[in-house]
Amino acid sequence: MYVLGIETSCDETGVAIYHSEQGLLNHLLYSQVEMHNEYGGVVPELASRDHIRKLVPLIKQCLQESHLKNDDINGIAYTAGPGLMGALLVGAATARSLAWSWQIPAIAVHHMEGHLLAPMLEESPPKFPFIALLISGGHTLLIQVEGIGRYRLLGESLDDAAGEAFDKTAKMLGLGYPGGPKLSLLAERGCPDIKFPRPMTDRPGLDFSFSGLKTFALNTIHASEKTVQDKADIAASFQSAVADTLSIKCKRALQQTGLKSLVVAGGVSANRKIRASLTEMADKENVQIYFPRPQFCTDNGAMIAYAGCQRLLAGQQQGLEIFARPRWPISELSPIQN
Ligand code: KG4
Ligand code: ZN
Fold it and tell me: Residue 256 to residues 178, 204, 250, 252: CA-CA distances in angstroms?
């Protein structure tokens, strides 16, 4: 089964073709980062308009490069949420219309399920059950995963998501948008010795809170002389605090559930320091850890094509309505029967 995947939930237009037996055939990404950079963050209306401009040409290019024709495609998977409503609608309306005219099924994919399953595209994929830490711009979720659609939420952020904290702290440091990659680059030149808190680690539970780190960063910036080295030290110390906090919570989730596999995905999982800290913790705990390749940590069409393919293979599909949900708890997803 050839599945066309479409991702337009935020500031990246992603398209991919996944084959149920051959695996990933092609994936293309158009990033709007340069356009939003001018405004210091994503401008939703501009994002929607740019998806409209880029999506159909990208789909054509993806098919052409894969030497496939329209009628080779057996199903279309599109991100239906969570995300920006206008941006989601572009992908949903395009996917639904193409599926209708090609007379094939369409399936609405949950963006965070896409992230969660992204490591399945790698050479040695994780096996169920596992713990998943999803760290993106909008969400920080710790989930016990028994199978596709069988998700037990163990913890989440009570305020800012991990990526949001990176972006806001980067902004305070005078770095552009998107802040996460820029902050981590600066952090490489810094010393992580400033004593940032490790929020909510001194009490039981698996929830997160990152807004305090942002405030601590702001106060530290104000108290410093704001030299490049000061900023690099603040970036490194902030990043270490996030990495430690995530490691402590994952370790706790693994110990509580007795599970021996950990999946880490979402944009922030591209961060080298965070990958290293979590890998070190997993090694000590004798746990297998799985990440997507850095390119598939951030938003992409491949993860949507993969997730949609699994649901289509299980016989699920969407009706003729254009389905988009800006807010969509992952725990509401239906399990697939296998
Ligand atoms: O998953 P994603 O591409 O989009 C959402 O679903 O939100 O995640 C984007 C987030 C942004 O907050 C971005 O700053 C962060 O991931 N991010 C990083 C890195 N690369 C992306 N944060 C820290 N270090 C990175 N290398
Ligand atoms: Zn994402």
Answer: 35, 11, 10, 6
Contacts of 207 (CB under 8 A, 6+ apart): 155, 156, 157, 158, 200
- 179 Cβ inside 6 Å of ligand 1: yes
2-7 and 23-31 strand pairing: unpaired
Could you tell which of 10, 36, 136 is best to mutate to test the pocket of ligand 1, judged by most ligand atoms within 8 Å of the CB?
Answer: 136
CA of residue 163 to ligand 2 center, whole Å = 10
| Cβ atoms 260, 286 nearer than 8 A | yes
- As a dihedral over the C-alpha atoms of residue 160, residue 143, residue 32, residue 237, rounded to 10 degrees, the angle is 50
| Cβ atoms of residues 99 and 73 within 8 Å | no
CA 313 – ligand 1 centroid, Å: 30
- Beta strand extents in the chain (DSSP E only): 2-7, 12-19, 23-31, 75-81, 106-110, 130-135, 140-147, 150-156, 261-265, 288-290
Tell me, using a 6 A CB cutoff, whether residue 109 lines ligand 1.
Answer: no
**pLDDT tens for residues 22-73?**
999 999 999 999 999 999 999 999 999 999 999 999 999 999 999 999 999 9
Q: Say how many Å lie between the CA of residue 238 and the centre of ligand 1.
A: 15
pLDDT tens-digit profile of 209-268?
A: 999 999 999 999 999 999 999 999 999 999 999 999 999 999 999 999 999 999 999 999
Instruction: Report the interhelical angle of 228-257 vs 179-187 (nearest 10°).
Output: 110
Element (DSSP H or E) covering residue 97: helix 85-102
